[in-house]
Amino acid sequence: MINALAQGLLGGALIATCSGGLSAGPLPIGFVYLRAIAPEIAQEMRYFGPFNFVGSPIDGYEAPECILTQAAAEALKAVQAEAQQAGLRLKVFDCYRPARAVAHFVRWSQDSADQRMKVAFYPHVDKADFFRLGYVAERSGHSRGSTVDLILASLTAADERATPSADQPLVDCTAPFAERYPDSDLDFGTGFDCMDPLSHPDNDQVSAEAQANRARLADLMMRHGFKPLAEEWWHFTLKDEPFPETYFDFPVSAPDGG
Ligand SMILES: C[C@@H](N)C(=O)N[C@H](C)C(=O)O
Ligand SMILES: [Zn+2]
Asked: In chain numbering, where does the site feature Transition state stabilizer fall (predicted)?
C-alpha cells in the first residue's frame, strides 16, 4: 500500500513510499520492470555498484534493475524497436531513482574531502557545483519514474559485461574515445555521467561522429515522446509522464523481492 504520501516536502511535491498492498509485486501500481516489457534493452545499472561518480553503491539501489512507469517503459520499447531496424540497441544506466538516492548525492556533494572519482566523472568541475550547473538535481525527474539515462550501441557489439568493478582504472571521461571507459562501442563524445560542458548535447567541441550519435539518440527519443536535458546527452524524460508531481522513495528491488 502506498502508505505515506507526505505533502510539503521538497517544495510542496509529493513523496511516496511503498510497502506492499496497492502494489504489483514489489512495485507501486503504474510501475514495471523494464526487463519484463523490453528484455532486448541492455541494462548496466551504475548506481547499484561502485563505478559511478560517488564511488560506492547508492542508497536505495538493492538490485541492478531498471524500473520505470509503464508509459515510459512502453515508449522505450518503441524506441528500441526503431533502433533495432538500424542495427542499434539501447543500454540504460539509470531509470527510476528513489528520493533517498538523491539525498545520498546531496550528502556526498557536501563532503569536499572525497574526490575519489573526480578523474573519471568530473575532471574539470567542482562537485559542490553539480546542482547549480544542472548535472544533478535535488529533486530529480528520475524519482518520478519516467526519466531514463541511456546510450546507443551496435546490435552486434558484445555487451554482456557486468557492472564495472570498484578497482576499474580511472580514466578522464573527456579523454578520446579509445582511452576512456567504453560505455558503448559508439562514441558519444564523453563518458556517461561525465559532468562537464563537453557532455552538453549541443557542444560542438566533440567529434562530428559523437555529435551525430547524440543527434541520433535525441531524435529517436524525441520522436517517441521524450524530451532531452541541455546539460547531459544521456538524460531524457517522458513528456506526458503519469506522475508529474510525485517523487517516489520505494527501493529498487529485484522482481522476486530478493
Ligand atoms: C546524475 C545524472 N545521471 C542525472 O540524472 N542528472 C539529472 C540532472 C538528475 O539528477 O535528474
Ligand atoms: Zn538522468
From this structure: 97
